[in-house]
Design a protein that fits this description.
The N terminus is likely disordered. Helix content is 24%, strand content 23%. The chain has 8 helices and 10 strands. An 8-stranded mixed sheet has the order 1-2-4-3-5-6-9-10. A two-stranded antiparallel sheet has the order 7-8. It folds into 2 domains: 184 residues, Rossmann fold (3-Layer(aba) Sandwich), CATH 3.40.50.1820; 47 residues, no CATH class. By secondary structure, it is an alpha/beta fold.
Amino acid sequence: MVRVTVRYRATVIWTRTGGADDGPLLVLLHGLGGTGELWRGLEALLPDAWAGGWVVPDLPGHGRSATASSYDFGVQAALVAEALPDDRDLVLVGHSMGGMVALAMAGRLDRVQRVVGFSIKTYWPAPHVEGMRGQSLKPARVFPTREEAVERYLLASGLRGLADPGAPEHAAGIREVPGADGGWRIAQDMGTFDFGVPDMPALLDDVSCPVTLARGSEDVMVREENYAGLGVEVVTWDGLGHNPHVEDPAAVVALL
């Protein structure tokens, strides 16, 4: 696997690639607060399950990617698309916010063959949106120790209780603050919390390829009725929560 950086309007998208150099390219898009490292368990299964290649980005303002001037789904989709080869058909897999980015990409790129989105929160009343916007205006908290910053990253990415705090891949989710009064903070740009008003029906209207939506039966953020009436295939994983790709990567691979 190699690291590839691509510049687009002064924004750098970090990616990791694997698999074959031809055939459909699987694009794995993490959720809010995460990094591409959340796909490690699923990637380990791909050599035996996916004949093409795959690419794992850190979304704008997350992990090792640079910040962006806006985190609207369409802007994120354009930035990620610029980091991908333009001669490959694409299959997009997105978790939570990454699922919205995947749908926005599919609405703009004719070469997207399929979208699999899971754990996508579709119910966004105005107070929720305003709460997220308010969060985006707060400075990132600086912690005196690296271990405390890792704990904050695990909370922000939904990994607390699911991942070993000592695992080396969490380094992608934090960064050291320079200076005499420095410390450690999460790498996520707080501006990423302001991504606008999610509109699943509008995103789906622009997509012409097949779409599968999935959720864990124990996911309190995404209920079965939230996916009702959207006119796409819906899969429910029994016993899984909001992070099925971490809890049971094989269940997600099975959808491919």
